[in-house]
Amino acid sequence: MVYSDYTGYPFPTAPPVDPFAKIRVDDCGKTKGCFRYGKPGCNAETCDYFLSYRRIGADVEFELSADTDGWVAVGFSSDKKMGGDDVMACVHDDNGRVRIQHFYNVGQWAKEIQRNPARDEEGVFENNRVTCRFKRPVYVPREETIVDLHLSWYYLFAWGPAIQGSITRHDIDSPPVSERVVSIYKYEDIFMPSAAYQTFSSPFCLLLIVALTFYLLMGTP
């Protein structure tokens, strides 16, 4: 999601009206689904990006957290590409508050939509992290900018800086996306290593390491 390029902006920290209950990761894969992006073994307070979801009656509760002083978001998409996506973002404004906003991706740009399906919103900025929790209905009247969550969608994960409460370009060129469509009726705990931990994780890299090791052990003729 893009508004403008920006490298950093100092924001004040304001305490939430009520204490923000910490995100529980021991429930991941049991009573809620989770996505973790970052260092192996990271949690909601240490992952580069964290998202959880769980059904509560007619709603889905989402919890988001990212290592940023600006915004953290999740997009619901019919494919793995940005564009034509329903996006919920938690934005740290210049008053130190975290607000939940609704956007619709038009190509690489995020357009704010005034109709916001979020409720029971809460958020906090502390330890240089934006963290939030909100609910939105599982079913909604048919509308282009708001998807029905009872259907399965690819989840797009993004975060980045903000200028006076307006989101700017996300922190990485190719933000992570769920490997397959996500169903709110299935709870998994999925870890996605960030780029720094992906170097030797692919099958090609492992085969290359094996080949090089064999070559070095055998020597050259």
Structure description:
This protein is mainly beta. It has one domain: Sandwich (Immunoglobulin-like). The protein contains 1 helix and 13 strands, in the order βββββββββββββα. The chain has one helix at residues 203-218, and strands at residues 33-38, 49-56, 59-66, 71-77, 86-92, 98-106, 109-112, 119-126, 129-137, 154-160, 162-163, 166-167, 189-193. It has a 6-stranded mixed β-sheet with strand order 8-9-3-2-1-13, with no helix packed on it. A hairpin with a 2-residue loop joins strand 2 and strand 3 (59-66). The longest helix has 16 residues, at 203-218. It is globular, with a radius of gyration of 19 Å. The N and C termini lie far apart (54 Å). Mean pLDDT is 83; it is low at 1-16 and 200-216.
Residue share in helices? under 10%
CATH-level-2 architecture: Sandwich
Count, helices: 1
Number of strands: 13
What is CATH's topology name?
Answer: Immunoglobulin-like
Low-confidence residue ranges: 1-16, 200-216
Percentage beta strand: 35-45%
Q: What is the residue-averaged pLDDT?
A: 83
Q: Output the strand order for the largest sheet.
A: 8-9-3-2-1-13
Q: Can you tell me the CATH class? A: Mainly Beta
Helix-strand string = EEEEEEEEEEEEEH
Question: What is the distance, rounded to the nearest whole angstrom, between the alpha carbons of the first and last residues?
Answer: 54 Å
Largest sheet geometry? 6 strands, mixed
Task: Please give a handful of descriptors for the protein shown.
five-stranded antiparallel β-sheet, disordered N terminus, 13 strands, 1 helix, Immunoglobulin-like, 221 residues, six-stranded mixed β-sheet
